[in-house]
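User: Teach me something about this protein's shape.
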Amino acid sequence: MAMTDTLPLIRQPSVAGRFYPADAETLRLAVDDFLAKAPDTAGIRPKAIIAPHAGYVFSGPIAGTAFAAVRALADEVRRVVLLAPAHRLGFPGLAVPHADAFATPLGNVAVDREGVAKALAQPGVQTLDAAFDGEHALEVELPFLQRLFHDFSLVPLLVSDASGPQVDGVLKALWGGPETLIVISSDLSHYQDDQTARKLDGAASRAIETADPASLKGHYACGHRAIAGLLLRARALDLRATTLDLRNSGDAPVGSRDRVVGYGAYAFEYADDARLPDAHRGTLMDLVHETLALVVAGETGPTLKLPDYPLPLRAVRNTFVTLELGGKLRGCVGSILPAQPLIVDVAVNARKAAANDRRFKPLTKEELSGLRASISILSHARPIAFKSDTELLFQLRPNTDGLIIKDGDRRALFLPKVWESLPEPPKFLAHLKAKAGLRPDHPTTSLKAWRFTAETFGDTE
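Assistant: First, the predicted structure itself:
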């Protein structure tokens, strides 16, 4: 009697025994060790991560850092959208396979056929099994996912000659909610000497942290096209990217410094929910008070040695430092655009708030004891389309959004915390116009506006 059921099509591993152990128990122990030794990422809940895909002896620890960041999502994630660069076959756009599952020594990972169908409905996506033959960039990520998530399906995508907007469109279609995790598989610079690689990988990290796909050059990362699409999503949805780990193959016990490949681990969190660990917040607040003490003593500094600080404190950010005395503003200075490491930006703005805010005289030693300081870490500034004040205000979320306005060379910014003193949206906007030197009824025809969020913490908490 003929069988009517079709047997599932399972894609067998291509690089087990070469890029990672072929023995299941050895593989399990290796992955668990990488995860266990990862830096502490408690408190973050990424929507997306970037992880490297080289042989585990070289990139395993860095991949462990990336995947350890999503450990807390184990009970939520049911679908993983995994994008990787196509190394073995070039083609236009993106590709998905016919396969029903991908096998590793740890078992089979089911393919989410519904997700694949959604991907295929997007421009530039095709079914192309040949692109997956021998491809390692997807496969090496699967054991990490298998050790973290016990009930998930996979949407596997290979990215070849695709534009950032093409990838962004696919991500938008598959984005989902907390049940969906986005993983981009990518190494960084390839086959440079150690010093050159560190410069290139630092530039790649800067482009990622500032969500600037135009600055992400092709030689920065083999997965630059997939990353560019994610950066467009990050800007659209206000995600904050953080470098969690950054090394190269020369850092491995068997690595050479002469010709290395770079590896980075990155986490993308919704900016509304992103929060530095208390220890990092404490470090920044200590730095603010150290800086203020130096200002009133007439001294320079502090001197910062960046390698002494963890990578999240070296992320490229723009911040504001606010000083209050007796419940009243005593100084507030910040950076509208991200241009330097978080730890540096905070120190610079603390000094300026104490000594260079033109609205106030320089801070004095006598004022230090009653002074309260706070730090605001700003998210991406996202443009607002509007034709009237009413349309502008409708798009603002009181107590959540900050606002930047600009007309010619006149510009002003209000942090989200200003809503505490100006809770009515029309007054909020009117006072911001006044701060920019504009009349409250200034016409909107030439006015531009951007909104942002901010993580704010300090002595007043």
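Now, about its shape. Residues 270 and 395 are 18 Å apart (CA to CA). The chain is about 30% helix and 25% strand. If you'd like, I can walk through any region in more detail.
User: That's plenty for now, thanks!
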